[in-house]
Amino acid sequence: MRLNYKVIFNLLGLLLIFNGLFMWLCLPFSMYYHEDVRPIFISGAITAGVGLFVWLVTRKTRNKELKKRDGFLVVSLGWILMSVFGTLPFLLSGHIDNFTDAFFETVSGYTTTGASILNNIEALPYGLLFWRSTTQWVGGMGIIVLALAILPTLGIGGMQLFAAEASGVTHDKLKPKIKDTASRLWSIYLGLTILETVILMFGGMTFYDALSHSFTTMASGGFSPKNNSVAYYDSPFIQYTIIVFMIIAGTNFSLLYFFFKGKFKKIFANEEFRVYILIIVVVSLVTTVIVFSQTWNEFEKAFRDALFQVVSIISSTGFATADYTTWTSLVSFIFLLLMLSGASAGSTSGGIKVIRFTLLLKNSFLAVKRQLHPSAVMPVRISGRAVKEDTMFNVMAFVILYLTIFVFGVFILTFTGNDIVTSLGAVATCQGNIGPGLGTVGPVNNFAHLNDISKWTLSIVMILGRLELFTILVLLTPNYWRGL
């Protein structure tokens, strides 16, 4: 089966057009704060112009159906191209003066990682900082899903794109048609962003700060326009509000759809959601005890800091209100496990996902039982439903591949001169799309001091993690390109 190159490049052209338009959405802030609008305006013009040219050249094609094989290439190239052109505002403004750092920052945005090379975030213009937040908001649901809400009106089929972009083991169809699914997901995403913005403004944030933080909260991104992240706002109301929305962002969006439809039984019947909440509760209580016994601050403050960091890491958001690397080695180890875990499948979070760990744990217990009862048929069940053997095989293959890439990434970082704690934390946080890590890339530091090899390695790891590994790696197999 040959690749449909015209449709592939037609879609990529449209994605670049959208990317350019999103850049221009940042211009009102530049004008309001009397900043130089040229870097963002020119960047948007170049990006949209290239996209328009590619779209016009490839728009006339008889076969507009996108096959699964095409979908892998569109998703992979789409994220890479968006990241390349997304560097333009940083480079043209001069606030990031080299492509490596600009690409790292932009990839961190689109993959909703939140790792940064900026030493003084507040020194950047408001318009540029809002572009930084926008990359995460767009990347949060996936630029592909955004496109799917629009492209069907142009007569382009996109079912395979959703299959390639969908996060996790399975995705519950909210509606039979993909365009309906995409538009409903986007409506929920947009609605929650607006709701959080209003609540944060009620808590004392300016409109700009509230919108910026809402963009990056719902995306599980973690970029903040403040050097001290959410710790800048010494407000329990603001911090608890962000905690709630981080939990929501780490929840399967199918369940959010059921919530708004009033189908609450389906939410609590979902085993992954119950395990997700249980992990947050248990780890938060353990961390609270450790923090309280170490600092002897008031209990509510210890609880709030612990809960905030636990939710921030498991949801892969990456906001910070405290330096958790000072909370004993045990806490650092627990948080490293949370970085690998991630939140729910079908959410904007990264990581391996709770459902995969749940399935592996259940399969391990059943393996022991099968030794005692070798003739018994004991399928792994999740939410009361039996899981197919090929699904379990794919889960195990994914986890093994995820950990293999993790080990390989740590090897490269340590080989280039980074200490082992920093290397473990950097790869775990970038592969899980979280942001702050451990060691010298903890919440009070950044990634600016890393060498270029480390930054490029982590950039690749971020993209692999965001696209759930297989979407990118399938392109590296000879069978994919055979016969082309």
Automatic annotation (TrEMBL):
One of its GO terms (molecular function) is potassium:chloride symporter activity. Keywords: Cell inner membrane, Cell membrane, Ion transport, Membrane, Metal-binding, Potassium, Potassium transport, Transmembrane, Transmembrane helix, Transport. Its main location: membrane. InterPro entries: Cat_transpt, TrkH. GO terms for cellular component: plasma membrane. K(+) binds at residues 112-113, 221, 317, 433. The keyword Metal-binding applies. The chain crosses the membrane at residues 7-33, 39-58, 70-92, 137-164, 185-208, 237-260, 272-292, 324-346, 391-415, 456-476. It is found in: Cell inner membrane. It is a multi-pass membrane protein. Belongs to the TrkH potassium transport family. This is Potassium uptake protein TrkH.
